[in-house]
Automatic annotation (TrEMBL):
Region ranges (Disordered): 83-125, 155-177
Pfam families given in the database record: DnaJ, RRM_1
Domain J: 11-76
SUPFAM superfamilies in alphabetical order: Chaperone J-domain, RNA-binding domain, RBD
Function of the molecule: May negatively affect PAX8-induced thyroglobulin/TG transcription.
Organism: Piliocolobus tephrosceles
InterPro entries: DnaJ_domain, DNAJC17_RRM, J_dom_sf, Nucleotide-bd_a/b_plait_sf, Pre-mRNA-splicing_ERAD, RBD_domain_sf, RRM_dom
UniProt-listed GO biological process terms: spliceosomal complex disassembly
Comp. bias intervals (Basic and acidic residues): 83-111
Domain of life according to the entry: Eukaryota
Name of the encoding gene: DNAJC17
Protein name per its UniProtKB record: DnaJ homolog subfamily C member 17
MF annotations from Gene Ontology: RNA binding
Length: 306
């Protein structure tokens, strides 16, 4: 039996159109049908008819011989398994390739996003810098107008209500504050601007408070009303371990009394209702002073922030 190598590369069962487990009878029947349809005598104009007829004859010889068929089935099975392995390997390679391409696309997209974010950040920084340079004058002008408007409203209020308190028209009252403070003491001996404001705002509206940078332990406060300044002069003592010394700078009314440590002075012009308010104020002042002292002691124990 001479079977060509080309024939062994073909699927003989598929060539005859039978199942792999087909019996010899089914193989022969299929051969007769195929051979009859492609016989060279019936297909004189088809040059491949003779070749196909020859291949069918060889397939019949292999599949009707038990030993040849077993050997062919073994080779066919091995080739089929090899083809499946190749297909799986190709699928894995294809998947790896697709994953790699997807990661590359993702990396490029991420790089593009990062570049865009970086460009946007640089643009924002440039715009902020431009606004800082070009708009600072506008901002300063607007702030100046706001301060001027506040000043005008304040002056108008004083003209309407402050004449009775300060008939001499000396302007808003200003007080000088002094306390013990070493030059190198950055804590200003407990009298920061916030602490001073908390102590003084109990008496009325504080317009300005300036701590001297040249003379430690010195500050100037400007009140909106003379009455508030008088109450501060007469009643505020500051921290227990470092008292405040308060004196008039501007706007002191005639007949104004100094600080009284034993209650209201004989010449005080305060009414009975003002006296009750003052008592309550002193009680709140004492509680706030104790709270400030406790807070400062706690901060000293904790030490400076790391």
């Amino acid at each position: 039996m001479a079977v060509t190598k080309e024939l062994l590369q073909m699927d003989l069962y598929e060539l005859l159109g039978v199942e792999e487990k087909a019996a010899d009878k089914e193989v022969k029947k299929a051969y007769r049908q195929k051979a009859l349809s492609c016989h060279p005598d019936k297909n004189p104009d088809n040059p491949r008819a003779a070749e196909l007829f020859h291949q069918l004859s060889q397939a019949l010889e292999v599949l009707t011989d038990a030993a040849a068929r077993a050997a062919y089935d073994k080779v066919r099975k091995a080739k089929k398994q090899a083809a499946e392995r190749t297909q799986k390997l190709d699928e894995k390679r294809k998947k790896v390739k697709l994953d790699l391409e997807a990661r590359e696309r993702q990396a490029r997209a991420q790089e593009s996003e990062e570049e865009e974010e970086s460009r946007s950040t640089r643009t924002l920084e440039q715009e902020i810098e431009r606004l800082r340079e070009e708009g600072s004058r506008q901002l300063e002008e607007q702030q100046r107008l706001i301060r001027e408007q506040i000043r005008q409203e304040h002056d108008h209020r004083l003209r309407g209500a402050g004449k009775a308190e300060n008939p001499e028209g000396q302007g808003t009252p200003k007080l000088k504050l002094k306390w013990k403070c070493k030059k190198e003491d950055e804590s200003k001996s407990g009298y920061s601007k916030d602490v001073l404001l908390q102590l003084l705002q109990k008496y009325g509206e504080v317009l300005h408070l300036v701590l001297s940078s040249k003379k430690p332990g010195t500050a100037v406060v400007e009140f909106a009303t003379v009455k508030a300044a008088e109450l501060a002069v007469q009643n505020e003592v500051g921290l227990v371990d470092n008292p405040l010394k308060i004196s008039w700078l501007e706007g002191q009314p005639q007949g104004a009394v100094g600080r009284s440590h034993s209650g209201l002075s004989k010449g005080s012009v305060l009414s009975e209702r003002d006296y009750e308010s003052l008592v309550m104020m002193r009680m709140r002042q004492a509680a706030e002073r104790q709270q400030l002292i406790a807070q400062m002691q706690q901060e000293d124990q904790e030490g400076p922030p790391t």
